[in-house]
Amino acid sequence: MTELVSGTGEPTAAGPVPAAPGAEPSVARVSQWTDIRHRFFANKLAVVGLVIIFLLVLVALFAPLLAPHDPLKQDLTQTLQSPGSAHWLGTDALGRDQLSRLIYGSRIAVIVGLASILVAVVIGVALGALAGYYGRWVDTVIMRVADVFFAFPLLIGAIVIILLMGRGVLPVVLSLAIFSWATFARLLRSQVLSVREMDYVHAAKALGAGQGRIIRKHILPNSLTSVLVYATSNVGIAIVAEASLSYLGVGVDPEVAEWGNMISAGRNFMGVKDFMWTYPSLAIVITALGFILLGNGLRDALDPKMR
Amino acid sequence: MGRYVVRRLGQLVIVVLGATMVLFACLFVLPGDPVGQIAGSDKARDPAVIEQLHKQYGLDKPLVVQYGTYVGKLVTGDLGTDYTQSRPVTEILGPKLENTAKLAVAAIVIDIVIGISVGVLAAMRRYSIWDVSATFITTLAIGVPSIVLGMIMQRVFVIELDWFPLIAGDSFEGIILPAFTLAIIDAALVAQLARSTMLEVLRADYVKTAVAKGLPRRTVLTRHIMRNSVIPVVTYLGISFGTLLGGAIITETIFNWNGIGLALIQAIQQNNNPIIVGVVTISVAVFVVLNLVVDLLYAALDPRIRLA
Amino acid sequence: MSRTPVTKHDEGDGMTSLEMAPTNAGADGAAPLLEVRDLHVEFAVRDSVTKAVNGVNYSVNAGETLAVLGESGSGKSVTAQAIMGILDSPPGRIAKGEIFFQGQDILRLPENERRKLRGAKMAMIFQDALSSLNPVLSVGFQLGEMFRAHQGMSRKDAKAKAIELMDRVRIPAAAQRVGDYPHQFSGGMRQRIMIAMALALEPDLIIADEPTTALDVTVQAQVMDLLAELQREYNMGLILITHDLGVVADVADKIAVMYAGRIVETAPVHELYKRPAHPYTKGLLESIPRLDHKGQELYAIKGLPPNLQAIPPGCAFNPRCTMAQDVCRTDVPPLVPVTELDGTELPGRHSACHFWKETIHG
């Protein structure tokens, strides 16, 4: 909540509340989604966010085509070149092409951001749904475990896991996931608790639907909208956290083309070769903003009352 | 109320214990022998010395026993002995925690002053140029993470303008840049939160009642609007303060602020596990305690909240 | 004009002032307590203007109860808020009109003078006491605030006054409950607290906006009786805003029916029930469930209330009116006095219908 993009995404009083589930889910959902889409695309900033993220993903996908050089290839005759025609964004202390590193850096951002939150969502949704639906000791155990993981500040927790697993993309993904799932578990649990008492869930139960079916068909769809909102903003948080870890020297390996590494490398040349850290900084800020705008746009579109 | 606090304290202990267990499970299966660090870089170490050091730090015992010993000491406020200086961890971290606390307080003050005034101004002049620019700037600010903001701060205020020394220690001058770096995202979030809650309160029926009662404008504003708007903001600030106290790793690293966050990073470089465990334990404990305080505060501010 | 308000339950005995429309004096020539003249209120949001009130006239005397009847969006509450001076502004704006209260046009008063009237001389009771009371302040504090703000009373004295008031509206164990918060009271008790707050400084006029709508049926009667009793006791003017004809019958002296920001009919309460002079009023009366018509299908006025951003030309009610003719679609019907067929004037009766004669006599 302090150093990262916008907090842990813990649901608060001011956080988004999903649109009230319609009494007839299947019919209501169709028109509901149309409304949501209209509201989303009417929000210019949200569209800007979507475009930023779309471009980011494109750059990450086509990095080999876009990058003019090999991001890892050192050229000790060409170190610390200022931006120019040969190297548009200059070169670093080992003569590596900064633009290529920046382009390849988007891959790490996208992979870590999406993968860590995907894992966190899967764990959190599953455990949160179980806790909310079964209650009693299941609930107690799951939520106390969630409390434990929730109590770690994201970066500090992640560092602990990385100390165990060593540096690298996979450890970063897992460490961020391990300290992000608790938010989704809490969210899902509270959603399930409120949806569980809705009339149509009672009706489904009265008609003899099994518990698994009730969770899958009735409870999850209604909870997923708010999960989507939190997941979106948490992807931005995870990307910033990943860059921060690498900046601190506990993220991906230092030679990997990654934005936090680039900023860290540029730190020693501050005031002398500012291009080394300003471009990757800009990349992080734009990416973070993209996810914030998209997250806000989704929140407003899903629940217009919260504006 | 009393029972609630007792129960919460119980939960709190469980959470802290759980957290230290996670920590232990991670740290003490680490590759690399910390004793190597203590014994120095000499390759031809005396196995007897190493064994003796193992004994001294209890590293020869099974992990479970080590954990038990650690928890036993933790209860009495003892965080163990560090590897590099052989001093009690609490003694090393005490002054650092104080520095971190200074930074956290400074950041929270900035959050309150900037966040609340911007949020209130924006809400009172809704749709005005003030409101629009406040929304724009706060959204932008939230997108600038500490690693970037800290770099920009140093580049602009230290190198370009030379207003602050590069390494300021824990002087008053030195706290300004890290405090702002730490505060700006939260200040922006507080501003947005204050704005939205205030807009909600402004629309509330009871504000209309207050006006219909013929209360002076200022009374309506302070007693009925502000008083109600401030509750979620206070809650947010409390939780944020808990996180700040847990160590602002990035900001402390960038500005060389001698707090527990910096201590953590240094300890990692030195494989100094007792310090790592100490910092993490402190930050978890501070966070859960502050959470409890926030919940109590919330209940005190809003009589509708029943603690159960 | 007699100011004794004991005539409520006697049918149209002529003792109560029923003058409402454009005249500005009570029967004895004295100015009425409150008189609203040609009031227009509009709400400007972005580029659309919502005309919520379009030329309302009414008056209330001391000790008299005027019921203002209408659907939501008819402008009845907006008129009341304009009188109190608590319109949401912006976007709300009084475009035209005058509001005379105790002889002076309060719309011309500076805001600070206006504020001193609120609560002290005129007070308002809102529909939903739970949301209208501040949730984080005790009811005693909120009651005492009236005395502290208007009379500079000390906190301690104000608390004693608050207990007194709570006793006055028959809240049990007032001294013990004075420190309780709104959510700790039942709906009926909360509405009593709203009433107590309105009565605190013994104002001359009370505006009650749907005071019983949010309450259980059994509690509604108790609260209404209490309000009527206190009104009688303090000889206050009361404007009772409601959409419920049932609430009106027992307590009101006269009724003004509003539709699309206009008054469409005024009448002494029992005459209105017997012989409505506007098709809209007629429709409302026919849609009340009645025991003696058990088994019959309930009548409902067809269509929806008009969109205030696009009020139909002519009579605003014409798209829903069973009697509508061409003239209704072109000419706005003025509010005219209603007479018997032989031309005998019916005191206090007005209708804004081109076909009022057919409605009342046919």
Notable characteristics:
heterotrimer, A: about 300 residues, mainly alpha, MetI-like fold, 12 helices, about 0% strand, C: about 350 residues, alpha/beta, Rossmann fold, eight-stranded mixed sheet, four-stranded antiparallel sheet, 13 helices, globular, disordered N terminus
Question: Please, could you describe this protein's structure?
Answer:
Chain A is elongated. Chain A has helices spanning 25-42, 44-61, 63-66, 98-134, 136-150, 154-165, 169-178, 181-196, 199-206, 211-248, 259-267, 275-302. Chain A is built from twelve helices and no strands. With 308 residues, chain B is mainly alpha-helical. Chain B folds into two domains: 2-84, no CATH class; 95-269, Orthogonal Bundle (MetI-like fold), CATH 1.10.3720. Chain B is 76% helix and 0% strand. Residues 36-44 of chain B have low confidence and may be disordered. The model of chain C is unreliable at 1-27 (pLDDT under 50). Chain C has helices at 76-84, 111-117, 129-132, 139-151, 155-168, 174-177, 187-199, 217-234, 245-251, 269-274, 279-286, 326-330, 356-361, and strands spanning 34-45, 48-60, 65-69, 92-101, 104-105, 122-125, 205-209, 237-242, 254-259, 262-268, 336-339, 345-351. Chains in contact: A-B, B-C. Chains A and B meet through helix 5, helix 6, helix 10, helix 11 and helix 12 of A and helix 1, helix 6, helix 7, helix 8 and helix 10 of B.
